[in-house]
Amino acid sequence: MVDRVGAAVIRLFAPAGAFALFAARALVRPFAPPYEGGEILRHLFQFGLRSTPLIATSGLAIGVVLSMHTRASLERFGAESMIPAGLAIALIRETGPLTAALLVAGRVGAGIGAELGAMRVTEQIDALEANAVDAFHFLVSTRVVACALAMPLLTILMDFAGMLGGYLAEAVASGMSWRLYFDRSFTFVSYADLLPATLKTAVFGFLIAVVASYLGFNTTGGTEGVGDASTRSVVLSSILIILSDVILVRMIFFFYPQVVG
Amino acid sequence: MTPAIRLEHLTKAFDGRRVLDDVTLDVSPGSAFCLLGRSGTGKSVTLRHIVGLVMPDEGRVLVDGEDIGALRPWQLARVRKRMGFLFQNAALFDSMTVGENVAFPLRRHTTLSETDIQARVMAKLDAVGLARDAHKMPSELSGGMRKRVGLARAMALDPAILLVDEPGAGLDPITTREIDDLLVAQKAAGVTLVVVTHNIPSARVIADDMALLHEGRVVARGSVAEMDASADPLVQAFMRSEAGG
Ligand SMILES: Nc1ncnc2c1ncn2[C@@H]1O[C@H](COP(=O)(O)OP(=O)(O)O)[C@@H](O)[C@H]1O
Ligand SMILES: [Mg+2]
Question: Coil, strand, or helix at residue A60?
Fold first, then answer.
């Protein structure tokens, strides 16, 4: 009985341990040479620039929707003038970072999982090693760095697209001017709202790239395995993003008490 | 003389199933060694042990006297730079063109100028008859062409040891002859060759020594003449077969 439970525990935690080791390596390895700047730039372009249409359109739509909700609730209190600020704070603190991360998990995470999975099953990862190249560093470190850098930038894009969407909705509803809208948006927004919430998405970017790289690297079972790695990358990184967000938000509240008040 | 490659009592199991069983082989420097055997007998796994892609459960792999399993990562990288490896499925980098595939080891491990790299790439592609295909993507190539690009990439750094997994698979008889000639020329230039093949006529052209693997064990080894003279029915069946895959 004890043996059976023990074996079950090991079965459950052995992959988690292997993943933790992989993640730790991904955290440390980028800081040692060779720095692979060219590869990192290539991935930054791939993950960052090519995600901008997705992030910008989603941000715009979310801004419109959030603005409608904010208007509906604030109107009851006769506080319509607070709509821009309410929307900006909601977007910048949580909606922008979380939505951007989940979208990137879907687009970039799936891509990394599939690409590295295909490289594994077609022995391209072995070919890198046989060519005396550290495949982990060449493939994983570069993607992790690029994804962690791209994520905050995409979040800022999402925040701005959302505020633009909010303005459009507000302009239709009340004819408010662009100038007034943005003035009112930023009256109550401080760096304590913007900075930690935006920087925490670097953690999301790290998680997305590490999870997808791990599953891609450990792909088995041919083409079907590649599909699995891709799907599981999205599912697992989305869950980790949401779970880690709980911890990150607690940490932000601890280090920036003014955010709570 | 230290053998270029020495496999000592290699034993390897995957998922509890024994794939190599006490394999011992020597390859002398500058010679060509052919590894024969039916599909699934562990030829590719043996080759992968030599570059350290697979580590043995028991036994040792020595390359120029160095125990591959005892090396630090950077030492292993140094040894790997002296070896060229053609994978059975070519394993080309499919995000790169043919030319970039061949240039890859040169870019990573030499300080050659771009002009020199291009000249070197064209020379290697020319040697495998693909000089006009440098700009193509791997997905645009036939299996035999991919194999030849893989060989050009394996030869890019002019390695002292060339490990080749089924060079003839997917090639027409004329191209097979050309690749055989290329491998013989490599040997003449002092390169140590280990070639996995099913093609006995090719093996006769290339090999100094041979070994026959069967179900993970070396059932026979020796010079081409010794293999011909063997009374073992399995060896006989192999040596008498003409063309092959
Ligand atoms: N990484 C691996 N995991 C599990 N089994 C493997 C692995 N590599 C090879 N095998 C198995 O080992 C056996 C020998 O494979 P291989 O060396 O490729 O044969 P061949 O002689 O045709 O080259 C096969 O049954 C193969 O399925
Ligand atoms: Mg094989």
Answer: helix
Tokens of A185: 């948006």
State the Cα–Cα distance between residues A42 and A168, nearest whole angstrom.
35
SS3 of residue A211 by DSSP: helix
Instruction: Answer yes or no: is B231 within a domain.
Output: yes
- Considering the domain boundaries, does residue B127 fall inside one? no
The answer to whether the bond into A34 is cis (omega within 30° of 0) is yes
Q: What angle do CA B137, B139, B141 make, to 5 degrees?
A: 85
> What confidence tens digit (pLDDT) does each residue in A188-232 have?
888 889 999 999 999 999 999 999 999 999 999 999 999 999 999
- The answer to whether B86 and B154 have CB atoms below 8 angstroms apart is yes
Number of domains present in the structure of chain A: 1
- Chain B nearest-CA residue for A129: B53
Note the helical H segments in chain B. 43-50, 73-81, 98-109, 114-127, 143-154, 173-188, 200-206, 224-229, 233-240
Domain that holds residue B63: 1-29+38-81+197-245
pLDDT tens digits, one per residue of B80-129: 999 999 999 999 999 999 999 999 999 999 999 999 999 999 999 999 99
Q: What is the pTM of this model?
A: 0.93
Contact B106, B112 (CB under 8 A): yes
The answer to whether residue B139 is domain-embedded is no
The answer as to whether B167 is a domain residue is no
pLDDT per residue as tens digits for the range B183-235: 999 999 999 999 999 889 999 999 999 999 999 999 999 999 999 999 899 99
For residues A218 and A195, give the distance between their C-alpha atoms in angstroms, rounded to a whole number: 36
pLDDT of residue A39: 94
Range of the domain at A199: 2-259
How many domains, in total, are found in chain B? 1
CB pairs under 8 A between A and B: 47
Confidence check on the interface: ipTM exceeds 0.90, yes or no: yes
**Count of C-beta atoms within a 10 Å radius of residue B50:** 26
Cβ under 8 Å to A: B residues 40-99: 48, 51-53, 73, 76-78, 80-81, 83, 85, 87, 89, 91-94
Q: Given the structure tokens 């191209």, which residue do they identify?
A: B175
